[in-house]
Amino acid sequence: MRNTVRHAAIIAVLLGTVLPAIGVGTYLVRYKYSSELRRGIQEQLPRSAHVIATGVSENLWALDRDAVAAMLDAVMQDPAVVAVEITDARLGRFLMREHPERRSDPPHHIEWPIHYRDERIGAVRLELTEAPLRRELREEIVSIIGLLALQLVVSVTLILYVLQRRLGTPLQKLGDEARELARGQLERPIVPQREDEIGQVEAQLEITRRALRSLIDTLEHKNRALEDDLTERRRVEAELLRLATVVRLTQNPIALAAPDATLHWFNEAFAARFDSPGRPALGRALGDVIGGNAGRDWASRQAVEQALAREESLSGLELAWQGADERLSSFSLELQPIHDESRTLRGWALLLNDVTERRQTSEALSALARLGAEPDQGAFLSALLAAVMQGCGASGGYIARHTPQGLNVLAGIAPPGGTLQTGLHAGNGLLTRYADTDGALIVRRGANEILSQEPVCRDCRAEALALAALRDARQRTTGHLVLFFDSAPAAPAAAQSLAALGAARASAEFERLEVLEALRQSEQKFFSIFQHVPIPLCVLREADGICLDINPGCSNLFGYPRELLIGSSLPASPLCPDAATRVALQDLLERRFETSVGELALRRLDGDLRACQIHVRRVSMNGEPSLLVALVDLSPLLAAKSEIVELNRSLEQRVAERTRDLAASKAELEHTLTQLRRTLDELVHAEKLAALGSLVAGIAHELNTPIGNSLMMASTLHDLNAAFGEQVRSGLRRSALDLHMQETASAADILVRNLQRAAELITSFKQVAVDQTSSQRRAFDLADVASEILVTMQPVLRKRNYGVTLAIPPGIRMESYPGPLGQVLANLLNNALLHAFEGRETGQIQLEASLLDDDRVRLDCRDDGVGIRAANLKRIFDPFFTTRLGRDGSGLGLNIVHNIVTGVLGGEIEVTSEENHGACFTLRLPRVAPRTAESPAETA
């Protein structure tokens, strides 16, 4: 078993809890057993002996044996008592009781004297056994051990559960995540379960996973790029190696000539045939070298010279050459001009192939070499296929390209008795798969079975097949060429090579057409952009800076005609107003960078100078290094920039002046607002203090009566107690005692009722005062808070003949701020007393509450007074708005109510009223007040 952290934790728990519990428990059990046993015997012996001696002392003195016997029989009911013996000081043994079967081990005994009126009259000898006490202790120890074991099991289970939950499972998850990282599974993110040490490790693992993922992605990207580079390099190296090998080992004469047709290089095969010490070939004219010898084949020499003069390729020309051994050899000549990208002649390439023994093949090669670019692709491919078939003696064949839609047959010649269908075919046969995998090959067996599965062929018969793949520049298979043979070819290698050559020629033609099309589109795009772009553009020859072309934008900007600028050097043109500008422009054009940028002042035809930004970029036009020059007119931009600078200067001045004015106004407004807020806070605070002072005065008045009555009763009790004390000293009669008891009970009853009344008033006032001063948040019953408010307002209500009805059912529990809520109720009641009944002697106010739903309470304060005018309803909660300004009205009461209800209590308040029909203030409050930053500070 592996030593894991989980096992170590379990072992640590077991060792840390079980072993100490066993050791301590064993020690405590042994100690308790021995100490309890010893203490039980030591305490029971004297106690029991003393009890017996005390119980029998009277009877022993009277020599009442029966009573003593009954006493001893009762004592013997104790299973720990073995024997009890009573001896008389004068008579000896008086009485004895014994249970010999209880002597299972040596008993403990004690002798205790018996006294009667301080005189010793005898003794008690008591023997006790440990067996019952030992049995009780064992049962108690067993129960203790059971409870201890249960506690250990519960403790170990809880500890193991916590360890498994907080350590084992997170560690196992951490291990699984680490193993996933080790296996390279980096897709799934690692999410920490808790913010502890293991969670921190998981967070670090997540960082590691992301880093590894990023590193692996980077490495994969670099590996793919490296693989592509290596593949391309291998292909180029293989091509170069193959070409060098072919050139070195080929038996065909190969030579290279300069543009003037003088030979400057040839291979060993060419030197063996045409170079001799008497007449070396190096440096001689190409036509003179290959034009024959001893007056032979002047027609070939003339054809070569004509091809050289016209810079045309020459293919299929046969030369007759007589060597030193006077043997006549025939060569097939391949003469190709070498052009660069600008179609400038750079030299000539000459290939001579000995066709003496392979004339048929040479004729085919000559035919292939004579093939030139055809406007009709199908005609070119048909001619190519015919030449290949003629060279290797094939009876039929076709050329097809591979497309995503299927096989597209572009040219075909059917064998005798069969048909070939050109065009697109949805299916792909075996030959397509052979071309993709094997390239060029000769099929000597099973040709008819293969043709029967080809969608191109119908009733075509062949004994052998030659296949060559068409490949693009990246060596990807794009099609194939197939040749049919009635019989196996005599020279399979030559047939295979010819098929491969035909496929390569077809591939080259496809690539040439694609390049021409791309070049045509590119030139068309460049010409369109060059002619229509509004930016002035010039094309210069890089060698001498001569202007080759300008676009209409350049003529429109500077006004010069095209004929004046084209053909001349740009620095020497009228665009440059002075020598410094010409030097700077020439320096900009001569910089050997891909792109160059500069700013110069150029002159228009009317003499006006324009600031221009000049961009020079090196390009290739028709194979010739050129410069594309863009002349961007900066004059409108500079004028706009100057205007913007001037506008910004004036704008900054106006903004600064306006900013100073706004800052001064803002400071003045902030000072005024601060003064208003401070004044409002002071008024609100004064309003609260005034309400609290009124409350204190009313409570003091209410407390005066019960406390005065209590004081009077207390003094009465004092006088009654003094009179009762005199009566006690002079002799107390029962009638006086009864009268004193009645008077004392009556006075105490009056005192208790008055003190209870005072206590109720003080409790209500204390709760209301604490709530309003501390604004504690607590749970309360809405009916209790409303009742306490009414109690504190009783002194105000008694002075007027206005009644207040409380219709709030108990049980509406709220968790809110009772102090602000009580202040709201007090302000609403004071507002009604002050405004609602003006000019009336009586009136009624009703406080009513109900539950709107489980979360909200509706509280109505309704009166039947004079009502509120419609014009005042919209302003009733505004600060300082009152209809009794200067007559007990500050205009802050209802504003305080509105602020408390909508702010601290998180509710809503609205008022409805009609003149002479009273008013109703409706509060909708949440049962649980919101905890917001504006709420008062809460205390525990």
Characterization of the model:
This protein is α+β, with helices and mostly antiparallel strands. It is about 50% helix and about 20% strand. The strands form seven sheets. A six-stranded antiparallel β-sheet has the order 13-11-10-17-16-14, with helices on both faces. Strands 6-5-9-8-7 form a five-stranded antiparallel β-sheet. Strand 20 and strand 21 form a beta hairpin. Helix 16 (about 635-730) runs antiparallel to helix 17. The longest helix is centred in the last third of the chain and has 96 residues, at about 635-730. It is elongated and about 185 Å long. About 25% of the residues are buried. The model is unreliable at about 935-940 (pLDDT under 50).
Please give a quick description of this structure.
With 940 residues, the chain is of the alpha+beta class.
| Alpha-carbon distance between the two ends | 54 Å
Uncertain spans, ≥5 residues at pLDDT below 50?
933-940
Indicate the structural class: alpha+beta
Largest sheet: 6 strands, antiparallel
- Shape, please? elongated
Strand content: 15-25%
Helix content: 40-55%
- Report the strand count: 29
Question: Layout of helices and strands, plus pairs?
Answer:
Blueprint: H1 5-61, H2 65-75, E1 81-88, E2 92-98, E3 108-116, E4 119-128, H3 131-182, H4 197-249, E5 254-257, E6 263-266, H5 268-274, H6 286-290, H7 298-310, E7 314-322, E8 328-339, E9 345-354, H8 359-370, H9 377-392, E10 396-403, E11 406-413, E12 419-420, E13 423-425, H10 430-437, E14 441-443, H11 447-452, E15 457-458, E16 464-471, E17 477-485, H12 492-532, E18 537-541, E19 547-550, H13 552-558, H14 562-565, H15 579-590, E20 595-603, E21 609-621, E22 624-633, H16 635-730, H17 734-774, E23 778-781, H18 782-792, H19 794-798, E24 802-807, E25 813-816, H20 818-836, E26 843-851, E27 856-863, H21 870-873, H22 893-904, E28 908-913, E29 919-926
Parallel strand pairs: 24-26
Antiparallel strand pairs: 1-2, 1-4, 3-4, 5-6, 5-9, 7-8, 8-9, 10-11, 10-17, 11-13, 12-15, 14-16, 16-17, 18-19, 18-22, 20-21, 21-22, 23-25, 26-27, 27-29, 28-29
